[in-house]
Every structure is written in C-alpha cells, then in structure tokens.
Amino acid sequence: MSIEDTLEEDGMGDVDHETSESESESEQEDVRLTEPSKKSIYNRDGLLEKLSDISWPDNVEWIQKLSIVVDQEKEVDVNDDLARELSFYTQALEGTRQAFEKLQAMGIPFLRPPDYYAEMVKTDSHMEKVKSRLLEQKKKIEEAEERRKAREAKRIAKEIQAQKLKERAKQKKEEIESVKKWRKQRQQSGFSMGGKDGDMGLTFEDGKSFERSSKRRPGVAPGDRSGGKARHGGNKGMKGMDKKRKNREYRETKFGFGGRKGLKKQNTSDTTNDMRSFNQGNMSGNKKRKR
Amino acid sequence: MAKKRKHSEAEVSEPSKKEVALQRPKRTLFGWKDGVEEKEGDSLIFRNREKLLVTCSRRIVYRYRHLMLNVVSLLPHCKKDNKVESKESKGSTLNELVELRNCSSCLFFECRKQKDLYLWMAKCPSGPSVKFLVNAVHTMEELKLTGNHLKGSRPILTFSSNFDKDPHWKILKELIMQIFGTPKDHRKSKPFYDHVFVFSIVDDHIWFRNYQVSVPHNEMDKVDRGGLDKMTLVEVGPRFCLNPIKIFGGSFGGPTLYENPFYISPNQIRALEKRKKAGKYAKKIKAKTRRKMHELSNPLEPDEFADMWKE
C-alpha cells in the first residue's frame, strides 16, 4: 500500500470516527484555559535536578537508547487530521531512516530475514480480518466505479440519440424545403417548360431522384392507414401453402377484405401530383390545332 | 537475587558507583564474554535493566483496558498485574506493589467515572512521576490500522525536536525513553528492528503513534540500493494523546515540580456544560417577574380617545 493511500484512509477514518463520536462524548473535545493560571507550579531547578538524577550516563551507546530526535519543520494545526498525521508520518520516516543508517554503519544485522517467523503483535486471525476488510473496500470502490461508468454511458447514449433525432428532423425539413423551392420555380416559369425541364426539376439538390416509396402496398388506398393487407399477413401457414397463400392475399387486398374501400377512389396529394397518365409536353396535343 | 536487583537500580541512578565493576561478566554461548568487557572496561558497562509494571484501576472501560493490553504486547520488558482497587490507588500501595514485583517503573491506567483515563508514569522508588490525561484513544484492534510487526522487537523511538525546549518536556522525554524503550538484549526481545514509535508534541500534548517499517531487502544487515528511499511505514497502532497534568518529585506523590497551567479537568468541563444547559426554567420565571415589575412601575397613560367611537 502506498503512502498516500494509507494517509488518505487515515484521514477519512478519523473523520468518520469523530462524527460518530461527536454526539456521544462532546466533552471529550479538548478545552483548555485561554491564559495560563497564575498559581501553577513550575519548579525549574527541581525538574532539572530530577532529570539529572534519573537520566542515564552520557556515554551510553546509542544502541541502548535507540532514540532519534527529528526536527519538526513547522507548526502543525492539530485539528487538521491529515496534516497532523502527515507530520507524524514524516517524523517516523525520517527517524527510521537515520536509525537504519546508524545501524548499518555499526554492521549489526537489523532487518528481519524473510524466513524468520515468530509471534507477531497482531494475531493471524486479526490480520485476516484486516485483509478481508481491505478487499471489501476495494470491491466497493470498484462497484461504485462501474455504476458511475454505466450512468455516464447512458447519458452519452441519450445525447447521441437526441442529436440523431434532430438531424433527421432537419433533413426532412430540408427535403420539404427543396421540394417547395422546386415547385415555386416551376410556377414562376409557368409550367411552360418541356418534359425535359420538368424532369430536371424533379431531381433534388443532393442528386437523389424522386422516388415513390417502396413501402407502398398494392391494392391499398394511399390514405388508408388501417393496415389493409399487412394485417392479414399475420399468420403464415405451412411451406407448401406459401405460394397459394400469397396469391390469395393479393387478390383479397385487391377485391375486398382488408382496409377501407371508400378511400380507394379518393384523391390524395400523391394521386393529384401523379402526372403519368397525362400527355407530357405539347407535341401531340398541339398537332391537331396547328392544322 | 533481590540484592542484585537493588544494586542494578543504584547503577541506573548513579552509575559512577564502584559496585558496577563487580558485576558478573556477561555470558555467551561459548563462555564468558571477557574480551568485550576488557575493551569497554575503562568506561562503565551500562546495562539497562528497566522493568515495567503495567496495571490499571478497577472498573476500567473495555476500550482503555484494550489500550493497556496493547501497550503490554508492545513492551516485552513489562509485567502486567491485577487491577488495583480504586480505594487503594494511593501512592503507597502502588509503590509497594511495584517493589513487590521488582520493577523499576510503573504505568498505571486510572479510569474515572467510566469516561476519563489518566495515565501515571512513574519511576520507582525515587521518582519522578507524571500524571497524564489520555485523549483520542484508538486501540490496535481497529481494522483500519493495517500494519503488523514482530512481538518484542525493539522499537526505534523518535522524538520531535520540541522535546528539548523546556525542562519539563526534557524530563518527560527521558521518562518515555526509559519506559518505552526495550532494554537491549532483553531475553524476551527479538533482535530485529521493524517498528518505530513516534512521540511528538503538538499543541502541548504528546501524541503517540506506532508504525511498522517495511523495507525491501534480501540480506539481514544490508538494505538494498535505494531501499531507504523506498521505505514505507504502515501504522500498527495504538494511538493516544497524552496531556500532562502534573509532574511529581517522588513516585506516585511527593512535591509537585510542574503543573500544567492550561489544564482543566474534564469534570470541570462537564460541569460547565451542564450549568450552561441548566436554569432554563428559572430564567423564564425571572424574566416574567421582571416584566411584571416593569409594567407596574411604568403604568400606561389613560387613553383620551378610548371612548371616542363609543357613543
């Protein structure tokens, strides 16, 4: 585990701990007098004397004491958990580094060989618990990550869908627009253009020639939305009957069964615009008059 | 046996005594360790024979008891004793107890009101002793402390530099060093160094931390190239924070040498809080009577337009 991890975890843990404890023991909070009380005792000489009494002789080797003094660079804010723990950590790290250098200089074996097994401070079962907790945390984090990703993907998909719809609407509008334009042009030129011009006008800007939609159903009136034949094609029988069935269907759509019949004879915009049955151009019609 | 112990204590306090030289030479597997002694002969051979008694008062809360047990597991040179009856937790009985167990120092966890933990650190029998208030206790059992280390390996003690500022911090440092440092070659200690204690003064409190040291290495006596840079620490616990209250000259008593000028006992704090909350009803009553008195003393002037629309 890296340093940042542990530290962060520590910090978070502390916060959790404090929030959980704050209600139960609010008095635990460190309250202190704002100014030092006057009658407090400070016997400097007595302290120093006592210190010299109990302290070990000066020439004691360092290996007996194993104590290291580490400079604290700056004042630490006590209430900032992270900063405080970081300062302790750096103190420990710096101290250990110095101590290990000293030990190494002495040439004493001081690191535990990997095959040295002995009783540890925490039991194996306890460490097992610690490990399982770590794993659980990791799993939780991963799950959260996954959920977040899924959410993100959903959002993006929605956006893309909206964009697509917009584009489609725009295209449709453009097409309609172009048709209108073409019509206006034709009106302005007074329908006098020959068949060739008309045909030219029929082509759209994007080069697609006007086509009847292929979805058109045979025998069904153009305005009929009730389904007509399509309704009938629902259940398909056996294979052998296939051809017969098709034939039958066609006839039924043509002569009855399925869809409203009344609409068949009504004009729609499609039929009015359908000029196929007219003589196009002025060739044949005008010949007689000329004579 | 007892005689020897006494003499060793004398050595600790006054190592310039002659008796030190009479000490039995150290034994090794192959015989007497004469050579070494000869070499160090001119300077005194110092042998740390610290023995620590760890006890607690009765009715200690489980959390604090666990803290005590953690301390016991960290210090191989300590002896754990039974809980002490709270009536008897006066200095003399404790001193007797320490004497009885042949110890030279004592850690006494005193729990009061099932809330406050006081820690006594004392050198016996000649003092000094310190009383701390313990705050912010986290025991080793907490699962977020993920480190582990050998039981009984000697800790490296690190102190922050502000321990050398004032005499009372100095004396505390010496005490902590003697009590928390495991004696070299103690028979229960293990010959490796894999954890570090942090004692740091922040905000006039001594903060304690215990870290496991993990260094990448192959051999026992050499750190890999750049290993010291790659060294990481994992916290093992426990954590606590000591607020020194008083330093006494003797062990568990004697003249007061230092008194923390900023200290307020948790009892006072609680009382203050209670007082703040109390008296709500009394205040209300008082306000009511005051209002009444005020109204009586300043009567309203008779309203001249009162019966104007009355007809």
What does this molecule look like?
The complex is a heterodimer of chains A (291) and B (311). Chain A is built from ten helices and one strand, in the order αααβααααααα. Chain A is an all-alpha fold. Chain A has a domain at 1-14 and 42-113. In chain A, α1 crosses α4 (81-106). Chain A is elongated, with a radius of gyration of 47 Å. The model of chain A is unreliable at 1-28, 194-199 and 230-237 (pLDDT under 50). Chain B folds into two domains: 1-47, no CATH class; 50-269, Rossmann fold (3-Layer(aba) Sandwich), CATH 3.40.50.10480. The longest helix of chain B is centred in the last third of the chain and has 18 residues, at 280-297. Chains A and B meet through α1, α2, α3, β1 and α4 of A and β6, α5, β7, β8 and β9 of B. Chain A: Its main location: nucleus. Chain A: Pfam families: Ebp2. Chain A: This is Probable rRNA-processing protein EBP2 homolog. Chain A: Residues 29-38, 164-180 have a biased composition (Basic and acidic residues).
* Low-confidence runs of chain B: 8-19, 33-42
The CATH topology of the largest domain in chain B turns out to be Rossmann fold
Q: Main sheet of chain B? A: 11 strands, mixed
User: Which stretches of chain A are low in confidence, meaning pLDDT under 50 for 5 or more residues running?
Assistant: 1-28, 194-199, 230-237
Report the top-level CATH class of the largest domain in chain B. Alpha Beta
Count of DSSP helices of chain B?
A: 7
Beta-strand portion of chain A reads under 5%
String of helices and strands of chain B: HHEHEHEEEEHEEEEEHH
The domain tally of chain B reads 2
Oligomer: heterodimer
The count of strands of chain B amounts to: 11
> What is the rounded distance between the termini of chain B?
116 Å
Task: Please state roughly what percent of the residues of chain B sit in beta strands, choosing from under 5%, 5-15%, 15-25%, 25-35%, 35-45% or over 45%.
Answer: 25-35%
Biggest interface, chains and residue tallies: A-B, 83 and 96 residues
SSE order of chain A, as H and E?
Answer: HHHEHHHHHHH
What's the pLDDT, averaged over the residues of chain B? 84
Name given to the CATH homologous superfamily of the largest domain in chain B:
Brix domain
Assign a percent range to the helix content of chain A: 55-70%
Mean pLDDT of chain A: 75
